[in-house]
Amino acid sequence: MGCSIMTKPKIEPEPFDEKCISHVSEIKVDPGIFVQENTNKFQEIYRVGSNLGSGAFGEVKTCFHRDTGQKRAVKIFRKDLISRGGKRQALDQEIEILKQLDHPNIVRVYEFFEDERRLYIVMEYCSGGELYAEIVKRKSFNEVHAAQIMQQILSAVSYMHDNFIIHRDLKPENILLEEQNETMNIKLIDFGAAIVNRDSDHYKNAMGTSYYVAPEVLTGEYNEKCDMWSCGVISYILLSGQPPFEGRNDTEILGKVKIGKFDMESDPWPRISSEAKNFISRLLCPNDERLSASQAIQHPWITQRAYRTLPSSDIIQEVLLKLNNFHSSNKLRDAVYTFITTQCISVQDTKLLREVFRNLDRDGDGKISRHELLQTYTKTVGAEQAAIDVDRVMKEVDTDNNGYINYSEFLKATLDIRKVMSTENLKAAFRMFDKDGNGSISADELRKVLEGGASSSEQVWNDIIDQVDQNGDGEIDLQEFEDIVLSKLS
């Protein structure tokens, strides 16, 4: 199922940001600012493990962080190969796109390294392998499991489209199973073909894999709904074990894609529900009739079949209390919490909270709105108090001020902070800021980490130093760093 029709991807320029940070409160803390190039040698930080796969430009291996022991995956690219044909630019673009994405079903990128011969991209490790391999093993999925998988894919796609990102190569080979178990938590990977489409442009260059590519990609202009056609093909394969458009080669496959006719009469389709068949038909149809991701996730087949075991009411109440009690009172502390939450915490520590997040995210778009939070709070404290509580939660937890609680913001506010703020994690956070490794953090080092793509006033970073610097030497040492981060925990 891997025939490719990809051409050279269009490289999108980063939007120019004229904003100048003139006050500490204007610093935007999000997970992407911590995805940076590590200037150390990769082998000094990670021990390389087993091989996970290989391709034309390099290989994917497991790796283990030498200080923390955390198991991750690393994509290793040979620079002599990626320097040709714009591949290096495409990889840089992939990193930039992944830095923007904060969703429980999109693979997380941690950091990257570069030496004379290779580029290393360190990412989240998923032990369950490719969805494609699971399809081959199982032949097909029952409707509940298929709907659960599609619900997660659609949530990730809805989130991407809301953030103006088109994946353009959705297929089971680019979907990983977090673990091999019945809940089937999945992660979208490989954003090498993805583009940023902030201006609602239509694209003409062919991009994708033959079995999954939308007909409008082949015959004319296309937009983000090309991803929805791919979702329709994946759904068809999950339920039947076969692609809807088959052929002996790319030419035959793409010819059938252009015609757009597919079989829902032969075995196993008589045993499959009318809702499932309607769902697929609403995706494998002309672009102007095709469901959007936000519409597809509300289709009856998804809402009725993709049920999951809900967290207990006691757990939800505990999470709501943590949200209510969270305060982002100090920018440096907030940055440290964000770094540790997104860079140091394991999947095992977030499993339960991820299910609560999904429960609160009623429309499945990968973020929690004020309205969604209000619905849950109203059930427990009444409408008037709920409005007060939710406004306070949004003010404190929505630290990037985008009007929603993103996944990492939710985790940051609800994880057990005493467990999170271990000595090991605090030292890892300190090392992130202490760029020159001299044992203290200067104003310039703070700026390099937290400034992001904006410009800033030097006074902003001096102000942060002044808030923390207890001995008056103009820098933050490890003890001062720990004191400010842990000050609210005692």
CATH superfamily of the largest domain: EF-hand
Q: Architecture of the largest domain, CATH level 2?
A: Orthogonal Bundle
Our count of helices gives: 22
Task: Please give the CATH class of the largest domain.
Answer: Mainly Alpha
Distance between the termini: 56 Å
How much helix is in the residues? 40-55%
Biggest sheet features: 5 strands, antiparallel
Number of beta strands: 15
Nearest-angstrom radius of gyration?
Answer: 23 Å
Number of domains: 3
Quaternary structure of the protein: single chain
Q: Show unreliable segments.
A: 7-18
Described by the principal axes of the CA atoms, the overall outline is globular
CATH topology of the largest domain: Recoverin, domain 1
Strand content: 5-15%
Strand order of the largest sheet: 2-3-4-6-5
Overall pLDDT, averaged? 89
User: How does the helix and strand content classify structurally?
Assistant: alpha+beta
Describe the protein in words:
This protein is α+β, with helices and mostly antiparallel strands and 490 residues long. It folds into 3 domains: 25-31 and 310-490, EF-hand (Recoverin, domain 1, Orthogonal Bundle); 35-123, Phosphorylase Kinase, domain 1; 131-305, Orthogonal Bundle (Transferase(Phosphotransferase), domain 1). It has helices spanning 42-45, 79-82, 87-100, 131-138, 143-162, 215-219, 226-240, 250-259, 274-281, 293-296, 300-305, 313-325, 331-343, 347-360, 370-381, 383-397, 407-414, 417-420, 423-433, 443-450, 458-468, 478-486; strands at residues 20-21, 46-54, 58-65, 71-78, 109-114, 118-123, 165-166, 175-177, 186-188, 195-196, 368-369, 404-405, 440-441, 455-456, 476-477. It has a 5-stranded antiparallel beta sheet with strand order 2-3-4-6-5. Strand 3 (58-65) and strand 4 form a beta hairpin. Helix 14 (347-360) packs across helix 17 and helix 15 (370-381) packs across helix 16.
